[in-house]
Amino acid sequence: MSKPKLSVFGVIYEALGFAMTKFGAAVRVAWLPILLLWVVQLVTVRLGFAEAQTGLATSLRLEPGYTYKFVESLFTTSPIYMVLMGVAVVLQASYMVPLIRYAARGIAPHQGMLHLEFGARHLFYAIATAASFAGVIVLMRIAISLGSEWIYGTVVPVLHTQQTIFEPGSLHSVETEEVYGGLNQLLAQLDQFLFRVGIDVSALQAALVIPVLAIGAYLMVRLFAMPYLTAARERGDSYTSLASSFRLSAGLNIFPLLAIGLLFVLMHVATYVMFWLGIFVYSIALSGSEVVIAGFEWLTPEGSAAPFVRGLMSVIFGLLVLFASAFIAALNAGLGGALVHRAIK
Q1: Model confidence pLDDT, tens digit, residues 119-155
Q2: N or C: which end of the chain has fewer CB within 10 A?
Q3: How far is CA 56 from the centre of its chain?
Q4: Closest CA to 207 of 274, 147, 262
């Protein structure tokens, strides 16, 4: 296969096209798993593993978010939290895999309204997502943590090593000074500069963090397409997900793929903006509905308008969040389909 050429706007245009034209299918496939994800989030909040105000925002999170939480939970001492995040990964894979196959291969999900399955394909997709995104982030955190311990446990004490100086011709005049005094002064000036520009790390930490972040970002870009290729792979295909992902991101292709990855991150940011905007609109609508409720109760003291209106507002807001989540899932799948088309053509 020839080396694919990547166009940032071509990929984004194809992803948006799939999300808009197949939005109905996305809602049909994703609504049940998303509702069950809300139940998982409610349990997570009730058990104290998450804050209530972030629960709804989490429902708008793209696929790597839950996978990262699950991989992160493997290093905790809470099996309950690990199980909850594992269930979240299963639920998201249950609708992301059919949507990615639809976008990449044109294989439409069945026409039923209940879509909830998890098989070998979904498992491999979850593993590929963990390896390409969550695993890299966890390894970066471990590297930074171990490196910081080495810096403050070994390097810093060495840099503050004192040496004794005897004044020539005197048996009693003794002074001490730092062996690396000049280097320490330079590091102190760099620390002050980083603090002034709003970077809350020391110069020594920056010397560790910057290379780790660069290597991690490079690996994530090279493996960016692997989960989508895994979900779209059919029996009899000659390609392997790992090799195709590396081929897609080879050479100068890494730069448009990096731009696509940054837009992918902006999609995450947009979900939280949508969440807070939705909360703002909902609060205004709820305040207005309370005025309507007060009017109804004044006209008909024996009426029961309040529960109905409040319930209607909650249903409307829930549907908006559901539709937003389904659109984000379709956009994510469309992005994956566009990358698969370019990787295996």
Answers
A1: 889 999 999 988 888 788 888 888 888 877 777 777 6
A2: C
A3: 15
A4: 147
Tokens for 123, please give them.
């498992």
Single-letter amino acid, residue 55: G
C-alpha span between 304 and 288 (Å, rounded): 17
Q: Collapsing DSSP states into helix, strand and coil, what is residue 198? A: coil
Structure confidence by residue, pLDDT tens digits, 228-265? 999 988 877 777 888 888 888 888 888 888 888 887 77
Helix axis angle, 254-299 to 203-222, nearest 10°: 90
Verdict on whether the full-model pTM lies above 0.90: no
Phi-psi region of 251 (alpha: psi -120 to 50; beta: other; left: phi over 0): left
List 163's β-bridge partners, or say none. Answer: 177
**Measured between alpha carbons, how far is 97 from 94 in angstroms, rounded to an integer?**
6
- What is the per-residue DSSP string for 169-190? T-SS-EEEEETTHHHHHHHHHH
Chain centroid offset of residue 41 CA: 16
- Model pLDDT for residues 69-116, shown as the tens digit of each residue: 888 777 776 788 888 888 888 998 999 999 999 999 988 888 888 888
